[in-house]
Amino acid sequence: MIWFGGSSLKAQQRSLPRPIPHQLVSQEDADNDTLMLSLEQTDSLFLNHNFDLLVSRYQVSSDSALIRQARLWDNPSFTAELGMNSINHLKPNFGKSGETAYTVDQIIQLAGKRSKSVALATFNADYSEASFMNLMRTLKWQLHASFTDYYFKYRSIQVLKEQQQILDRIVAAYQKADSSGSVAHGDYMRLRQLQISLKNDVLSALSQLNDLQQSLQQLLGITTPILPVYKEVGISSRLPGNLMLSGLIQKALTVRPDMQMSVLDKKTAVANYQLQKAIAVPDLHVGASYDQNSGVVHNYMGLTLGIDLPFWNRNQGNIRSARLLVDQAGIKGEQQQNIVITEVSGAYRKYKDYKEAFKPRELNDFQQNFYTLISQVADNFTKGNITLLQFIDFFNSYSDNYNDQNGYYSALLNAFNDLEYAVGSSLQTEE
Which of 12, 265, 391, 404 could form a disulfide with 173 if both were Cys (CB 3.0 to 4.6 A apart)? Predict the structure, then answer.
């Protein structure tokens, strides 16, 4: 037994904290101003406070207003002619002996231009809404990824801090023993190096955690720190395992907003092509005229009809351009379909690999057994049955195992998040 400073090294070892079992984050882990949020609560906050979504909603409303604008008729025009006598004797003469004439003209759009403009505005508004849904889909995917990464990174940091606390006490004890020559100096230096390395690991993990916290706050549109909380029991077993790739692909082709945008892009191109052809048809001008002292009779009334003569400009260039845009949209649609199929297939294989890597209770059972082993190792260390370095090796193994398990669950949930993103719909089973 090594004695120093009136107490034994074994007595110092007995005061070391024991490793904590696999457990959920509690309110005690959070600061007073920290919001503890489940994934469902986070989604609700995101939908109501995300700034990008709020801005995009205004764009949707703005484009929808253009549908009403497209339905409106063109305003009539009014022209008044007031007599000024001859050029040699300019003097207003608006009386009964003077000249006064009025004309009203209304454009009547032919070839269904107005209805085609309404159809084009409707497709543009639908595209804007689909774009909003696609933005929400992308941001929600980022939110879930940050939420998951933060939760498991936070858990790993708790283990690292626990290891740091234990190691700090051991190093403090060995420092006293080293100063009195009671322990090998090499053992003390090895522990100091391990202590520095562990502190660097903690600082690196905290830096990553700060970045994730910043991302979460920006996505949620808040400045208050949050602490993600998962209903962790049975994570693996609650995730669906009987998904069929063909069904997922078919669903994605139907509901994915970017696929809907591709379809609307083709419809918009067709609607624009039809409108450009209609524009080639001249509009009709219908009006009425009044002339107080015309050359025919007094108080002359006339009906006016007019139409542009399409001799040179028949909108040929715009029609040709619109036709090419229809063909372009068709090719883009085929490309988008290929993107959807390959993304769903890749996400499905990735999720399936993680889901089938372990049985639902395999990791939890192993973690409990490993925790029991580490507890026994700690007891044997306090009794002096194993060396300090053996204890450190076992305890580092516990830390590595804990981090590996956190890494697996994080990767599994992110793989499921990627699959939901690729399909464009929630696939979570009901609890």
Answer: 12
Q: Residue type for 152, please?
A: F
Q: Domain 3-74+109-280+315-423 in CATH: superfamily?
A: Outer membrane efflux proteins (OEP) (1.20.1600.10)
Instruction: Give the span between the Cα atoms of 431 and 311, in whole angstroms.
Output: 71
How far apart are the C-alpha atoms of 259 and 423, rounded to whole Å?
Answer: 11
Q: How many CB atoms lie under 10 A from the CB of residue 348?
A: 20
Domain boundaries, the chain: 3-74+109-280+315-423, 75-108+282-314
Q: Are 423 and 248 in contact (CB under 8 A)?
A: yes
Q: What is the pTM of this model?
A: 0.83
The arithmetic mean of pLDDT across residues 62-81, rounded, is 94
At 102-154, the pLDDT tens digits run 999 999 999 999 999 999 999 999 999 999 999 999 999 999 999 999 999 99
Q: DSSP label at 27?
A: G
Residue 212 β-bridge partners: none
User: What is the spatial distance between Cα 201 and Cα 428, in angstroms, rounded to a whole number?
Assistant: 34
